[in-house]
Amino acid sequence: GLVRSPLGTTALQVVARTIIVWMVCYGFPATTAPSAAYVALLASWAAADAVRYAYLALNLHGKAPAALVRLRYSMFYPLYPVGIASEFWLLYLAVEPARRVSPALPPLFYLCLGLYVPGSYIMYTYMIKQRRKTLSKLDKSQ
Fold it and tell me: What residue ranges are annotated as transmembrane (predicted)?
């Protein structure tokens, strides 16, 4: 496949980010941009992605240093809750302005909000399993 991760977890992350970026932040910047959650979201996404892509680029050639591997599979512990809570709050903030755009948007946003708890659990536990598996291999190789 295109990615090594299961399609479900990859799709969940891509769909969630697409909704947050295009439907929420881009769609309702007057509501979302002033929020502290917006800054927290950008910081958590930027930190996670900087480490993730550095790891992926170096790992293509088998050259990812052990410290970067550990960072890649440990940073999600603080960053996922911050990112998820920020996404949730920004989505919640966008409900009322969305009501003025289309009566179909608030129910869609509420549906997305309802999916955050199970979706977050799936993503977080997936990363815990990946961390255990990857760091176990790393520890055995050192």
Answer: 76-95, 107-127
Which of 104, 89, 82 is CA-nearest to residue 24?
89
Can 53 be counted among the known catalytic residues?
no
Q: One of 55, 73, 77, 87 is an active-site residue; which one? A: 87
Of these residues, 55, 80, 92, 126, which one is catalytic? 80
CA contacts within 13 A on the Cβ side of 63: 5
Contact between 132 and 22 under an 8 Å Cβ cutoff? The reply is no
pLDDT tens digits, 74-124: 999 999 999 999 999 999 999 999 999 999 999 999 999 999 999 999 999
Residue 1's pLDDT is: 53
Catalytic site residue 124? no
* pLDDT on residue 3: 58
